[in-house]
Design brief:
The chain is built from six helices and eleven strands. Strands 1, 4, 5, 6, 7, 8, 9, 10 and 11 form a nine-stranded mixed beta sheet that branches. Helix 5 runs parallel beside helix 6.
């Protein structure tokens, strides 16, 4: 296997801001399908072996993707998100399952604009953060979410990112303590990555588009308290110069 994509994909709660109607579930399957259709086009007539690992609590089969004829794998897990949620566990399970030593971390809604597959296989295998642009509701391009001039000091903005699997394992993956609150798991990953001494670069020429979707509703479930909890944990890890998180990928390695 030459490359493993790891794509967490769950539904989430949001508000329909146009009508202020509360919707409990937004399903990202349509966005995932559109994204993988594009990757299918980019893989046409290529010889590399690439797998797509979908990690989810809310998708229980991949029948909606079967016509793509891609190398797909579904990993299901259970987690009670009443105290908070982060994709740490999904990334860890996906990384452990990956057959390739080279991993792409991305989201179901991030669709490639440039020929990502051709570009990345023409580069030496290394750690790359790719440029990502947000899409507005009217489907025009919005703000840049990450590039070499914005949010590029650590490799945490993995809208579309490539990592050496061994580097991920060496820092014990993502810290699942952040699943007890909201946010900061990406900042923590990037800071521990830098403390471990691993190199990365930001590629402005490799570009993904973050397709428009309703934003997660952070006004419910005491989100401010949950964000505060994770912020404190993030600062604690930094103050202690933690490199290998305590509750990471190694908890699954021998199970």
């Amino acid at each position: 296997m030459d490359l493993s994509f790891i794509i967490p994909c769950d539904s989430f709660s949001y508000y329909n801001l146009s009508g202020y109607e509360y919707c409990k579930e937004f399903n990202r399957q349509d966005l995932l399908l559109k994204t993988l259709q594009k990757y299918k086009e980019l893989l046409n007539n290529r010889s590399e072996k690439i797998e797509f690992i979908i990690v989810s609590r809310t998708i229980f089969n991949l029948d909606f993707l079967k016509d793509l004829n891609l190398d797909l794998k579904l990993i299901n897990y259970v987690y009670d998100d009443s105290n908070g949620f982060a994709p740490s566990k999904a990334f860890n399970l996906g990384t452990l399952s990956a057959l390739a030593g080279y991993i792409c971390i991305t989201s179901p809604e991030v669709i490639p604009i440039t020929n990502v597959i051709n570009q990345v296989f023409n580069l030496p295998k290394n750690n790359y953060i790719c440029k990502c642009i947000d899409q507005n509701k009217d489907l025009t391009n919005g703000m840049v979410l990450v590039d070499s001039n914005f949010r590029s000091n650590v490799p945490s903005m993995y809208f579309l990112a490539f990592y050496l699997k061994q580097n991920i394992l060496d820092i014990n993956g993502w810290d699942e303590e952040f699943m007890n609150g909201f946010s900061f798991e990406d900042d923590d990953f990037g800071n521990r990555f830098i403390r471990a001494g691993f190199n990365f670069s930001v590629r402005n020429d490799i570009i993904g588009l973050h397709q428009y979707h309703p934003r997660i509703d952070f006004s419910i479930s005491d989100s401010e308290q949950k964000i505060k909890r994770n912020r404190e944990h993030f600062f604690n890890n930094n103050n202690q110069n933690i490199i290998k998180c305590r509750k990471g990928i190694d908890q699954y390695a021998f199970k």
